Amino acid sequence: QVRLVESGGGSALPGGSLRLSCTASGFNISTYMMRWHRQPPGKERQLVAGVSPLGFTNYAESVKGRFTISRDIAKNMVFLQMNSLRPEDTAVYYCNGLGATRAQVGNDYWGQGTQVTVSS
After folding, report:
1. Distance of alpha carbon 23 from alpha carbon 51, whole angstroms
2. Is 66 exposed, middle or buried (0-12, 13-18, 19+ CB in 10 A)?
3. I need a labelling partner for 78 at 20 to 30 A (CA). Which of 5, 14, 23, 72 fits?
4. Contact criterion met (CB below 8 Å) for 38 and 60
5. In the chain, what is the straight-line distance between the N-terminal and C-terminal CA atoms, in Å?
């Protein structure tokens, strides 16, 4: 059974840090594009960061230099280190695994989301 379970969300002060974790089961993250998305209150879901099967990373302009995506292939986990948090980072954060090979076409897995609130 495929599952993605996020953890590590919570509240932080502006300028603070949080680290999100995503534990995957039922598939191997090393062959998937693993991504973090977020959905701020009243807004559409947006891509935050991604890491390719080869380890290449990409980030939304709004989080470059502040957020870092990483993975532990042995543990089948993906992480999002969030530093210098801003109130506008407040959102529900979702872990996503997108199939990256021909055999994985159509595989698009999502976690249940974890709330991040940045406020003074």
Report:
1. 15
2. middle
3. 14
4. no
5. 40
Does residue 29 carry a pLDDT above 90? Answer: yes
Q: Which residue has the tokens 């199939």?
A: 99
- The pair of structure tokens assigned to 111 is 């976690």
Per DSSP (E only), the strands in the chain are 3-7, 10-12, 18-25, 32-39, 46-51, 57-59, 67-72, 77-82, 91-99, 108-110, 114-118
* pLDDT tens string 37-94: 999 999 999 999 999 999 999 999 999 999 999 999 999 999 999 999 999 999 999 9
DSSP-derived secondary structure letter, 65 = T
Based on its alpha-carbon atoms, the radius of gyration of the chain, rounded to whole angstroms, reads 14
Output the pLDDT for position 106.
87
Q: Pick the closest to residue 68 from 76, 55, 53, 58 (CA basis).
A: 58
Q: Are 62 and 90 in contact (CB under 8 A)?
A: no
Does residue 101 surpass a pLDDT of 90? no
Return the amino acid letter for 24. A
